[in-house]
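Today's session is about reading a structure prediction critically. Students often jump straight to the picture, but the first step is always the sequence itself: look for stretches that repeat, for charged clusters, for runs of hydrophobic residues. Only then move on to the predicted structure, which in these notes is written as discrete structure tokens rather than atom positions. Here is the chain we will use throughout the hour.
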Amino acid sequence: MNKYFEVIAISADKERLHKYGKDNGVKTFWVEMTREITPVKDILAVVKLVFYFLKEKPLIVHTHTPKAGVVGMLAAKIAGVPIRLHTVAGLPLLETTGTKRKILEWVEKFTYQLATRIYPNSIGLKEIILDHGFTRENKIKILGKGSSNGIDTSYFNPGEYSISEGLNLKTKMGVPQNNLIYIFIGRIVSEKGINELIDAFKQLQKIHPDVTLLLVGPLEEHLDPLREESMQEIKNNPNIISTGYQNDVRPYLAIADILVFPSYREGFPNVVMQAGAMGLPSIVSNINGCNEIIEEGKNGFIIPVKDKQALFQSMEKLLKDSVLRNNVSGRSREIICNNYDRKEFWQILKNEYDLLEKEQKKV
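Below is the predicted structure for this chain, in token form.
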């Protein structure tokens, strides 16, 4: 976008934002935002952004995530920004109840009212938004075949990693060289299906002891804690390895055999695209995004949400049938490259910006 627009990146993570601006040659602006309901901080963020938008006078403000959405869209509306775009990459409210659910639903509707266009990043997410009456259909558009930013298929390329590099990483982590490796990448929280995954893996390990489960991602006990039994199993089972957050997940995908991603809700998960680009078959839950990337039996398998027995059966199926596993694996990268290449998505997004700019000039 730098070639066609003056880009300013705004985020709450000061250190990563500074690095991002330096690496990508764009201006940056830091504003404090939280992932929780914090009215005072949110109002301060809105005020700070209003003054910044009045100074910079942007043509387009494009927000991502629920909190950045409501804060950014409100500030942009007050400041008179003509094109206000919001990408929806998931709905946290779907896993909440009671008063909190009502507040989050109101916030979602309010954000969509403030925006001039809404971009759900999957077909399923669009249907959920319309079913809940959050906005009208003529305000919604899906870019390409879905996703928030596509996938860099040259970056996520299994050909970049040698067998010896994989052997060294396994040795470093204490993984037996001949073990079949399942991998999960994401936040280690209940809504990602980790409790069900731990139960399914324990059941599988009793029958097939030569297996390893890699959990790659941060443990967020304060937001959505796992069951105590799951925590103890992660700590005490030598065949379960938790790596914590990793800036680069490719080496872990390169040594893995199967992605397991039994999440309860998603928008359009990057992890499933990344794993596919690295040639891994995926076992995913039947939720929007996941069931659009994965074609049953072609590049993975789809299981019911929160169904640990179905998860176990699919994990065992791919373990026992190496021919099936290799066939599914062989098709995985091709499907991602053909449908979700990042550069094609960037062009689609640029075309959308150009179209909106032309429409605004007419106004």
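Discussion point for the tutorial: The domain at 158-339 is CATH 3.40.50.2000 (Rossmann fold).
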